[in-house]
Task: inverse folding
């Protein structure tokens, strides 16, 4: 664990940029960017186009360490270069933005109102890649649809079990048990999830740190116990499908929580924009999200 990166995440101002669209979410991300499915015919071509979008964001003067604490990258991006450097190295050495690696392989079918992560058979190789590429930590996503105690307990067990494996190699895991913003039982699910996380934090060894990334709650400051827990380095909020303005408004009411936005970050960006327009839109987005993360 890099001490300077640790201090940046712990004390820095700004938010985490989620640039980790994977195979399943990439087509929609490219379509929102103005690149239709007819622009590519293979996964390789699709990922090339996605990398071009990510590179344009990373190289923009608006994307700087004064407003962006960290960036979550897909495995394909970690293996590529930006600005003549490996992506993770560029983020830290050029912009003082802390790099993270997405490690999950998508969601399993719904069971007990939740979707666990699919198995990660190549987890050891992914973690070795993360260490080799000098990322600070990792991120993995599960999905909660209903306030089912059994299902939410299974989500928490799985997230923490894999989290311990990540800690064992010296990386900091971001646990992301997302709750659907459309859940008819969202408030109850938030209560069950918070209790499950607090219970399992007792299994951390002294000095071990994790991060958690959660859906913006219905009750302001609902996750304050997690914000102030000694085992949690930082609590992040995902936009979860809320429009940027709505996500920012909710975020500002949750003190000590910082954003980890993807769609809310890139909304309005288009491949056809010239650099001046692209950078202006990205700058406005970054500044608004950063300001909402300051409370």
Result:
């Amino acid at each position: 664990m890099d001490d300077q990166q640790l201090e940046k995440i712990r004390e820095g101002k700004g938010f985490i940029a989620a640039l980790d669209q994977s195979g399943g979410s990439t087509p929609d991300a490219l379509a929102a960017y103005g690149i239709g499915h007819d622009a590519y015919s293979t996964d390789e071509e699709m990922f090339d186009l996605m990398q071009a979008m990510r590179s344009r964001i990373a190289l923009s003067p608006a994307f700087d360490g004064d407003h962006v604490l960290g960036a979550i990258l897909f495995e394909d991006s970690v293996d590529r270069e930006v600005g003549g450097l490996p992506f993770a190295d560029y983020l830290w050495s050029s912009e003082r933005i802390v790099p993270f690696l997405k490690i999950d392989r998508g969601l399993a079918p719904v069971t007990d109102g939740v979707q666990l992560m699919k198995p990660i058979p190549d987890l050891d190789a992914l973690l070795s890649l993360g260490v080799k590429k000098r990322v600070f930590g990792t991120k993995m996503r599960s999905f909660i649809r209903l306030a089912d105690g059994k299902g939410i307990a299974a989500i928490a067990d799985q997230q923490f079990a894999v989290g311990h494996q990540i800690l064992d190699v010296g990386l900091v895991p971001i646990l992301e048990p997302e709750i659907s913003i459309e859940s008819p039982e969202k408030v109850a699910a938030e209560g069950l999830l918070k209790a499950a996380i607090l219970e399992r934090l007792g299994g951390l060894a002294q000095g071990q740190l994790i991060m958690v990334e959660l859906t913006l709650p219905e009750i302001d400051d609902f996750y304050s116990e997690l914000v102030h827990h000694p085992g949690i380095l930082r609590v992040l909020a995902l936009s979860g499908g809320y429009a940027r303005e709505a996500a920012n408004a909710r975020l500002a009411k949750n003190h000590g929580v910082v954003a980890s936005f993807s769609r809310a970050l890139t909304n309005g960006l288009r491949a056809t924009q010239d650099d001046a327009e692209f950078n202006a839109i990205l700058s406005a987005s970054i500044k608004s999200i950063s300001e909402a993360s300051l409370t």
Notes: DSSP finds twelve helices and eleven strands in the chain. The first strand starts at residue 15 and ends at 19. The mean pLDDT is 96. Residues 181 and 240 are 7 Å apart (CA to CA).
